[in-house]
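Appendix B. Worked example

We walk through a single record from start to finish. Start with the input: the chain for Small ribosomal subunit protein mS41 SAM domain-containing protein, Digitaria exilis, length 107.
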Amino acid sequence: MALTFASHARRLLITGAGAPARSLHAEPYQAKVGVVEFLNGVGKGVETHAAKVEEAVGGDLQRLLEARTLRLKKLGIPCKHRKLILSFAHKYRLGLWKPRAEPRKVE
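Next comes the structure step. The output line below is what the pipeline stores for this chain.
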């Protein structure tokens, strides 16, 4: 009985059962991500600030990823959009999110 439980537990650990199923079709992602592509990927109205942010960080995505909320606030970006930018920047740094080649259709 204990051997059966141990093999079942090992199988769950190896296969990752309980993890979300992944799609077999790869989603198209941006090959090279710039500041504008990053903000367009975030969506939700954040892309309206693309010109201001790109000018402030000099078009360097790395500087945007290192930006703090106070710097974005000085650019006149509303709190909700700052929060989205910083949240997606953190996900991007960790490799958990990438902007898509085409924006998602919201229906």
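Two observations about the output. The first helix runs from residue 2 to 15. The helical segments are 2-15, 35-42, 50-57, 61-65, 69-74, 79-94.
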